[in-house]
Input
Amino acid sequence: MKKIAIIFILLLSLGLVLPVKAQAAESIWITASTSSFKTGETVIVTVNGISASPIQGMTFQIRFDPACLKALNAASPIPGLNGLPLPQLEGLVDASFASTTPVIANGILAEVRFTTLGECQTNVTLESAALVIKNESGFAAPLPGVALGEKSIPFAISAEKAASDENPPLLGTPLPLGVEPEASSPASLPTMTTIILVAIGVFLIFGIFVLIRILKRDNSA
Amino acid sequence: MNKTHLARAVMLIAIIFSIFGSGSQVSAQGNSTNTLGAQIIIRSTTFWDAVFNGTVNANRYERWSLQLVEAENFTISIITTSGNLTPDIYLLDANENQIAVGNGSISSALLTTNQLAGDYFIQVQPQTGEGTYLMEITRVEQVVEPTASVMLNPASVLVGGTSAGTVMLTNIPQGGYASAEFTCSFDPALVSISNIADAGLFGSDPAAAINGPANGSFVFAVAGSNGQRATSDGAVFTFTVTALAVGEAEINCVARVSAGGSLTTIASTPATLLITAAESTVNGTVLATKPVTVTLYDGNAVETSGLVDANGNFTLTAPAGSYSAVASAPGFLRAQGNVVLTSGVTTTMPTISLLAGDIDGNDVIDQFDALTIGINYNLAAPAAADLNNDGTINVLDLELLAANYRDTGPTAWQ
Output
């Protein structure tokens, strides 16, 4: 009986001493498998989440340095969550996924793929994110009380070229994240093309001039 | 009780009821006659200057018919002849709606009223007590006086508008008038008077004189020539009233008439011209694939609003002033601009296309608007997400949204 009492007291003491880590019921955070990359290598940033309630969508915005990284695509492994193709901004991944039916979101919500552009020390930052529900009026609304966990991941990119870039297959249908290039004026030609065209013109005129002189000389002879 | 006794009792009750006339159960009638639970006994048709007697108590009211073949001014008087009755008199129209009431005091009640031709009912009921009464209906002789009255047509105009004024003489006594003088007054800040002209009541080629208008008054004097007189009611002279400012302008003409010899002042009836600000108009075109509402705000208050037509055109009228014009449609960013409306002038606002995508109406086209399309894909609701208004929320709506993604409102409408 005495032993039981001692064990009980020890357990109680242990319970009082161990710190309790507060964990929000709903949260979103990002992770990466490694933090060191070579130039030309693919970086996979995983967006993770926990939600006690079923959701009908999610959205996240990840800031990155476009001088170091180029966003390729994003995909969600959760069946039914489909990416919405929306215009992207330079240096920002703006991804949204929606489902017509409520889905459970616990674990990996999405992964975002970048390719490294050159030697860099940089961060990717989860700027904002939300789990989305359908409100009474049928509109998408952020699930309240969702905390953002790990928001920034540092990357070291070396100048060494990656030999081959073998990556795991995508977890879902890819959502392209490329920034559409600004439309160039179709009327303007590149400078080099213009120079070549001018040179060809000069040569043609010179050739015709020489040909005329040769013909005149033959006639007079 | 055998069958014979029962039959006698039934017949006795029937006879008693037949003596007291036909009764009908009263239903509640508005707030008029306080007749809940009482029976109304229909009495005979009344006529002038006769005395009628009746009996009323808490359970029995009496209703007398009254037919007026022309407008009449008349008095209904009731005097209690037995009991402790304090009577009330209600005058009802043909639809049994109360139109006049005479509340009694102690043992009598009096109701004097002026009514047009038609069918009426006089209902007598106790205010308190019960008893018998005598009722008398008498005409009130109307004193007919000659009157000079001003008439305006129309009686309401916008600023800058005109109204035709006529001065009439009515109830001209036998023998007529040889001459008349009208001193008319008006507010010169609100109206101006012009085109004063004789209307011929004093015969052809009368002697007429006009003084003014000046400082808010004018005088028109007229006398029949060659023994001609004004012998019947009619227009003496006419004039034109021009509205200068918003307000109510009273025009009165005091008349002095002469039957031959001296001038006598007669009654006069003025007329009032209601002058309102001229409406100003704003129109324009707002393009969107959904119905657009255009609203004019005076500060935070809505002045007026309206829907655009199938071509996106709208026209709104409002008093002159500065307004904020807002064009809105479900699922689109609002457009807002300022517009100054001038009295009597149509102002055209520039044509504008609303930007599609603000589905939740928070003045920004963002990912939550896109997600609303995503979570309602292939559905019809919410209607605001069906941006192209084709009945289905799908990628075509997302295309429209994507074209304006990250735009904020309200967009400038200038």
Notes: The helical segments of chain B are 3-19, 367-375, 395-403. Confidence is low (pLDDT under 50) at residues 14-34 of chain B. Residues 3-19 of chain B form the longest helix (17 residues). Residues 279-412 of chain B form a domain with the Immunoglobulin-like fold (CATH 2.60.40.4130).
